[in-house]
Write a structure and sequence with these properties.
The protein is of the alpha+beta class. The longest helix is centred in the middle third of the chain and has 34 residues. It contains 6 helices and 7 strands, in the order ββαααββαααβββ. Helix 4 crosses helix 6. The protein is elongated and about 65 Å long. Strands 1, 2, 3, 4, 5, 6 and 7 form a 7-stranded mixed beta sheet that branches.
Amino acid sequence: MKTYEKELPEGYVEAKVIDAKNSKLGIVLNLIAMAVLVVTVVVTWFALFAQYNETFFDIIKNRILLSNPWANIGRLGLLVAVLFVYIILHELVHGVVYKLLTKQKLTFGVTLTVAYCGVPNVYVYRTAALLALLAPFVVFLPVFLVPMFFLKNYIDVLLCAVMLGMHVGGCCGDLYNTFLYLFKFRDPSTLMRDTGPKQTFYVKKQSEDFSTSNIENN
C-alpha cells in the first residue's frame, strides 16, 4: 500500500485547510475540549455521589477536603505530571505512526493553544492519515477509562475522569479531521499535507468538482 507522495501529483487541487493556529478555529476547538471535560467530570461525579443524600459542598468538605487532605494534594500534583507526560506521549504516538508509514522527517511543537506533530515534507494518503489521526485516541482511551471501573478511591476516579475528559477533548481536532475523511473526503486517493498545526486536504480534480474558488480556510 502506497502511503505518501513526495510531490503533489498532477491533477490535484487544494480542497480544505484546517489551521489550529487560526484564532477562530483555536477558540472553537478549545471550547469543545472544555465542554467535553466538564461533561465527563459531571457524569462521573453523579455516578459516584448520587447515592449520598449530601449537598455538593458537603461532599467537597467531608469526602474530599477532610478525607486525607495531604494525600489528595499529592494526587493533584500527580495529575499535573501525568497531564504533561500525556501531552508528550500523545504527539509521540502520532509521530510513531507517521514514521512507520512514511519513514520521513517529523516535526513537533507547541503553541499557547495546541501541541502538534506533523510530517510536513510529504503528502499522505487517506488511509495512512486516518491511522495517524486516530492512533492517540485509540491508544489512550482505555488507559484512562478502564481504571475508573476498578479504582476504589473517589478522588482517584475523579482524576481519571479529568484525564479522560482532557484526552477526548484534546483529540477534537484529530476527530474533526477524521469526520472530514469519513463523510467528505472518502476517495482513497485523497492526500493530506500535515505540517503539525495545519492540515491541507487535496483531491483529484477530475473526481471532485473543486476549484481554487472552492477552497475553504478555517
